[in-house]
Amino acid sequence: MYLIREFREEDVYDVFRIAFENLTEKYSLDLFLDIHRAWPSGFLVAELKDIVGFIAGSYYEGNARILMLAVDKPFRGRGIGSALLNRFIFECKKMGIRTVSLEVRTGNIDAIQFYQKRGFQVMSRIDNYYTNGDSAYVMWKMI
Ligand SMILES: CC(C)(COP(=O)(O)OP(=O)(O)OC[C@H]1O[C@@H](n2cnc3c(N)ncnc32)[C@H](O)[C@@H]1OP(=O)(O)O)[C@@H](O)C(=O)NCCC(=O)NCCS
């Protein structure tokens, strides 16, 4: 069984590794700490023996934004990504947040389907959004 819990600063190396190995965009160690300080309950990890996934978000007024969501490959397809997302949405609701948005690479079909099955809809597209020139879909969900 895995546990979903709030990120702690000592988790930063595990989360950095998961992001590095599972996300195309590359992020600095400091960014994770900054995201956590800005909104501690919006940064969650999934822990078995080790940390195997995380979700990190930000918010502004009544909208939360998922900045990163990743689960290590061998642990995918076991409901961990869904559990992270559900707990994130729960934390949003506690704060009175009404919408959740995110950007996803237009070619990341698995993630797009993952979010669509969980009630997110594509609202718009941003060309040349990522460092490598890939475009993003902006997806939204009312919670
Ligand atoms: C998107 C992601 C976080 C989902 O995590 P997950 O732990 O696999 O999520 P779940 O197990 O809750 O659901 C995955 C879905 O894929 C299916 N699946 C089955 N086996 C799978 C496998 N080996 N790998 C991935 N998905 C699998 C699941 O059954 C489930 O299907 P459903 O949508 O019909 O319910 C994960 O695939 C990931 O880290 N992807 C790379 C990073 C990424 O693209 N992040 C999102 C962009 S920000």
3D structure, described in words:
- The chain is an alpha+beta fold and 143 residues long.
- The protein has a single domain, classed as Gcn5-related N-acetyltransferase (GNAT) (Aminopeptidase, 3-Layer(aba) Sandwich), CATH 3.40.630.
- Helix content is 31%, strand content 34%.
- The chain has four helices and seven strands.
- The protein has helices at 12-22, 29-38, 80-94, 109-117, and strands at residues 3-6, 43-47, 51-60, 63-71, 99-105, 121-126, 136-142.
- Strands 1-2-3-4-5-7-6 form a seven-stranded mixed beta sheet, with helices on both faces.
- A hairpin with a 2-residue loop joins strand 3 (51-60) and strand 4 (63-71).
- The mean pLDDT is 98.
- Residues 22-23, 68-71, 76-82, 104, 108, 110-111, 114, 117 line the site of coenzyme A.
Which labels suit this protein?
143 residues; Aminopeptidase; binds coenzyme A; globular; alpha+beta; 4 helices
CATH superfamily: Gcn5-related N-acetyltransferase (GNAT)
Binned, the helix content reads: 25-40%
Termini Cα gap: 27 Å
Quickly name the level 1 CATH class: Alpha Beta
Cofactors, ions and other ligands in the entry: coenzyme A
Strand % is 25-35%
Give the number of domains.
1
Shape: globular
Could you say what the CATH topology is called? Aminopeptidase
Query: What is the string of SSEs from the N terminus onward?
Result: EHHEEEHEHEE
Structural classification: alpha+beta
